[in-house]
Amino acid sequence: MAGIPEALEQVRSALHAALDLDPPRGLGDDELLVALGALEGVGRLLDAHRATFAGEVADRSRVELGAGRLSTRKGCRSAAELIERVTQVSGTEARRRVSVGRATLADTGLTGQPVPAAHPHVAAALVAGSLGLDAAATIVRELGRTRTVADPTRLDVAERELVDQATGTGDAAPVRASADELAVQARAWAVFLDQDGTEPDDERAMRRRGFRVGRARDGLIQISGELLPEVAAKLKRLLDAHLSPRSGGGFLTGAERSDLAVQAETRTTEQQRHDVLAAIIDTAARSGEHPSIGGAAPTVLVSVRAVDLETGSGAGHADGVELPISLRAVRHMVCTGGIQTVVSDAAGRIIRLGSPERCFTPHQRRAITLRDGGCLIPGCTVPAAWCEIHHVIPDARGGPTHTENGVLLCWFHHRTIDSSGWGIRMRRGVPEIRPPAWLDPGGSWRKSTTSPTRLADRLDHDHAPPERKTA
């Protein structure tokens, strides 16, 4: 075993010398494609051993080993992270190797009897170099979802058929199936193998429930998962409650208010659902009913350089996600959650730590809620409890954290207030709204509130005798 690294280094050197080929640009079309296939064949042999070694690392990092886990002893949270550190591959690739490696790893039982691999046909094809890691991962993933409910004999048949399709062997597979084509076939097999079909099965649903936060892609973080029916019903009802076409309060009345609200809404239904979910998360985080982290309520730490914030160029970084966030998002979070200045020298040593600048207190929030009622933007039905408090005059320009400088805005309208064209100002402590020019050219400033008590006061004032009206 001690000679494996040396032997692999010899193989690597030999491959390096053997593959010191002329550039492919000089090859003919057919010759180019034949060479490409041959290179892939070499890669498949390497893939098989990569998966085998990853499976062994994962086996030595089993949870039941506790502090004796290989990954723990090497300072990593999981086998995938350890593989990622050693090989410099992505986390996704490391997890894929672990999945295939575990599924194709033969073992020994407690009595000393050999225990075959969970996917013996995949394992054999990998060792033979006829099956690549991508196709193997597809088979393992799709069939693995049915392993707890499928008949073992049928599962074995499905695995063998899929391997034949991937390797181009057998009567039904005249040519190799690509990984994407194999995924379609594997999903069809999974439906066939699921003995419960579409019938409701509470135990099966409980096993399969889950929620996943994915990796960054095209500037967004993907989420996926399966919800229990009752959880999905609650979420849909909550979304429906805030996406219904009912008119909201504002500074206009009657048909004028309804028309303006319809014109002002430019978001798709999917975007509105996203924004409602954002409000739900923010509301839950500040409710005080969730576990604390480090002695404080769950708080996202966002870092940004002062020079970037001042010049408007660059980006911020939020702990827990790999994507940078825009400066507009940073300003939004600063307005909502405050800011703390950390000064470091050129070497990175912290030389000054400022105090966190004060956010609106619960007492101030209650007072602003009574005055504004909910999001100030006409037609928006997001309630006050889901809203954030916006500094009308930003803190960076000297705006105080005071009830006469704070108004309620929902997550979306707060996030876009600097670019949407809506104007907000305070006059003697009362918020006023002006619609964007594209919505209401020449629009004037008007008071805005959905507070029942404030609306009642306005009705009293509007319909009171002249002698009772006050400025």
Q: Could you list some keywords that capture this structure?
A:
3-stranded antiparallel sheet; 18 helices; HNH nuclease domain-containing protein; HNH; HNH_nuc; DUF222
Short account of what is shown:
Residues 433-471 are annotated as: Disordered. With 471 residues, the chain is mainly alpha-helical. Helix content is 46%, strand content 11%.
Helix and strand topology:
Layout: H1 4-18, H2 29-59, H3 70-73, H4 79-87, H5 91-103, E1 107-108, E2 114-115, H6 120-128, H7 133-144, H8 152-167, H9 179-193, H10 202-208, E3 210-217, E4 220-226, H11 229-243, H12 254-264, H13 269-285, E5 302-303, H14 306-311, E6 316-318, E7 324-325, H15 327-337, E8 342-344, E9 350-353, H16 362-372, E10 388-391, E11 406-409, H17 411-415, E12 423-427, E13 430-434, E14 446-447, H18 452-463
Antiparallel strand pairs: 1-2, 3-4, 5-6, 6-7, 8-9, 10-11, 12-13, 13-14
Helix pairs in contact: 2-5, 2-6, 4-5, 5-7, 7-8, 7-9, 8-9
InterPro entries: DUF222, HNH, HNH_nuc
Organism: Agromyces hippuratus
Family: Belongs to the Rv1128c/1148c/1588c/1702c/1945/3466 family.
Q: Which overall shape is indicated by the principal axes computed on the Cα atoms?
A: elongated
Q: Strand content of the residues, in percent?
A: 5-15%
Radius of gyration: 31 Å
- Secondary structure class reads mainly alpha
Largest sheet: 3 strands, antiparallel
Protein name: HNH nuclease domain-containing protein
Organism: Agromyces hippuratus
InterPro entries: DUF222 (IPR003870), HNH (IPR002711), HNH_nuc (IPR003615)
Family: Belongs to the Rv1128c/1148c/1588c/1702c/1945/3466 family.
